[in-house]
């Protein structure tokens, strides 16, 4: 039997991997796996000392299947992973090895994953074997795709070669989001092996990406918190402080684990509802402004600079912008900036806009409404025409550029009334810390309207547009999301919160 398979370029490996992923979703594949498991059940459960012919049969069985995998051995090993037979996969690979087989990098990578599935610790010989494969791969390829990087870092942590794992992560020039598992494995390794400073370094690096680390990294962090009782509260708070700093909302299952540990350590943690910014459990009003003067100033400077130098000219007519900037600079500061069109297109149309303006006028606020020209005629016929300044922009202009310029030119207490989440303004916030400051600013300066049953539209300056992990006295309030991919969701349901009350003696 000829086991030699030509070396294939890395791109093809990736294509093959996606090909496999597509196949795995098919019903036919599940049926095939069922038949494969039945046919080779003995070998899969007892994979030691299996005759060569049996493995050859298995290989041929897969090759002759309707799937005709590009790299048959990667396919076999991946099936062992899917069906949770790591030792069978390892034995299969040993059979290939004893037949002078030259594995492709995708087969090697899949083979390494099998070691990561093992519950029992690796023997000294196995560790050396795994390490030599990892080194071989990293020496052969100058750049690794994310899948390989994830596998290698996991294995290197497993065999205790964290310096090599760090090298891979530090060399990875692409977006760290793609090597989320690798970074998470490194975080886990450091916290589980008493390397707190390094653990924190990569925890922070991971929190700077939009998803943050995987759950298993949080699990290791929690174990680290529980190791020393007298440091538990401080360590939990450190994590909350980081969530707040980087504007990250954790997933529910992470918060549940942490809440269980906290409840066993003297905290009182319960799910809560936040209504009109007040926690139903501790009855405290959540902080309305998380930005200190220094943070606000930093955000203001960057936002104005970016908006004027880049954003405004990208999205609008420069003449219109110059006119607008002069207009604002002569009339600022405003207390309230209303996104006229956005509110107009809310449930109750012009009534919502009128209510909003009247609401703030009653409080003596100086109001700017930014609208488009087609609103002008309508507004000129209403009694609100003298209650605010109105600036009309062309239909093709991007309103939120105007909103932000007016808000940040006016000052720290100025609020914006808009439902727009201003996602496109993330361009100004490529720095994760600035991005978090922008989210905090939204949380405390941007409000929306609500429609009340029977009583029309009411401007509700208690509805926050963004939700942040935050502390009020001895209580941390933690909003959560359901699953990883929704961490960037800005609007959180009123009941998607936990109230973490700290023990009395550790405020
Ligand atoms: Zn509370």
UniProtKB/TrEMBL annotation:
Signal peptide: none annotated. InterPro entries: MRPP3_PIN_dom (IPR033495), PRORP_C (IPR031595), TPR-like_helical_dom_sf (IPR011990). GO terms for cellular component: mitochondrial ribonuclease P complex. Its EC number is 3.1.26.5. GO terms for molecular function: metal ion binding; ribonuclease P activity. It is found in: Mitochondrion. CDD domains: PIN_PRORP. The keyword Zinc applies. The keyword Transit peptide applies. GO terms for biological process: mitochondrial tRNA 5'-end processing; tRNA 5'-leader removal. It catalyses: Endonucleolytic cleavage of RNA, removing 5'-extranucleotides from tRNA precursor. Keywords: Hydrolase, Magnesium, Metal-binding, Mitochondrion, Nuclease, Transit peptide, tRNA processing, Zinc. Its main location: mitochondrion. Residues 278-499 form the PRORP domain. Pfam families: PRORP. It is an enzyme of class 3 (hydrolase). Its cofactor is Mg(2+). It comes from the Eukaryota. Belongs to the PPR family. P subfamily. This is Mitochondrial ribonuclease P catalytic subunit.
């Amino acid at each position: 039997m000829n086991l030699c398979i030509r070396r294939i370029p890395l791109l093809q490996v990736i294509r093959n991997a996606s090909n496999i992923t597509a196949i795995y979703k098919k019903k036919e594949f599940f049926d095939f796996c069922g038949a494969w498991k039945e046919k080779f059940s003995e070998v899969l459960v007892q994979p030691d000392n299996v005759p060569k012919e049996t493995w050859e049969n298995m290989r041929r069985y897969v090759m002759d299947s309707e799937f005709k995998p590009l790299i048959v051995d990667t396919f076999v090993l991946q099936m062992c992973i899917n069906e949770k037979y790591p030792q069978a996969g390892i034995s299969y690979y040993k059979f290939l090895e004893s037949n002078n087989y030259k594995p492709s990098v995708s087969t090697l990578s899949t083979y390494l994953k099998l070691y990561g599935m093992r519950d029992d610790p690796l023997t000294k010989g196995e560790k050396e074997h795994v390490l030599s494969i990892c080194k071989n791969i990293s020496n052969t390829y100058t750049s690794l795709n994310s899948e390989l990087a994830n596998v290698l870092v996991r294995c290197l942590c497993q065999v205790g070669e964290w310096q090599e794992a760090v090298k891979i992560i530090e060399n990875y020039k692409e977006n760290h989001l793609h090597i989320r598992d690798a970074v998470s494995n490194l975080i886990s390794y450091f916290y589980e092996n008493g390397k707190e400073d390094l653990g924190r370094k990569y925890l922070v690096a991971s929190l700077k990406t939009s998803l943050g680390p995987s759950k298993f990294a949080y699990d290791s962090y929690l174990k680290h918190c529980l190791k020393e009782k007298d440091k538990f509260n401080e360590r939990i708070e450190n994590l909350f402080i980081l969530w707040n700093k980087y504007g990250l909302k954790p997933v529910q299952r992470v918060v549940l684990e942490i809440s269980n540990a906290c409840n066993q350590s003297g905290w009182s943690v319960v799910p809560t509802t936040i209504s009109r910014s007040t926690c139903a459990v501790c009855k405290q009003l959540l902080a309305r402004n998380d930005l200190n003067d220094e943070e606000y100033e930093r955000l203001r400077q960057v936002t104005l600079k970016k908006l004027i130098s880049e954003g405004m000219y990208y999205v609008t007519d420069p003449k219109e912008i110059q006119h607008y900037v002069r207009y604002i600079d002569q009339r600022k500061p405003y207390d309230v900036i209303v996104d006229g069109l956005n509110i107009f297109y809310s449930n109750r149309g012009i009534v919502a806009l009128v209510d909003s303006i009247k609401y703030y006028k009653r409080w003596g606020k100086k109001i700017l409404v930014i609208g488009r020209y087609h609103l002008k005629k309508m507004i000129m016929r209403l009694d609100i025409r003298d209650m605010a300044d109105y600036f009309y922009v062309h239909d093709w202009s991007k309103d939120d550029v105007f909103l932000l310029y007016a808000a940040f030119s006016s000052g720290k207490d100025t609020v914006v009334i808009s439902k727009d989440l201003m996602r496109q303004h993330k361009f100004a916030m490529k720095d994760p810390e600035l991005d978090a400051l922008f989210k905090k600013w939204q949380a405390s300066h941007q409000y929306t309207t609500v429609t009340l049953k029977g009583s029309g539209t009411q401007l509700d300056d208690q509805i926050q547009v963004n939700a942040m992990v935050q502390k009020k006295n001895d209580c941390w309030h933690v909003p959560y999301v359901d699953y990883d991919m929704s961490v960037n969701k800005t609007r959180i349901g009123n009941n998607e919160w936990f109230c973490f009350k700290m023990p009395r003696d550790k405020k």
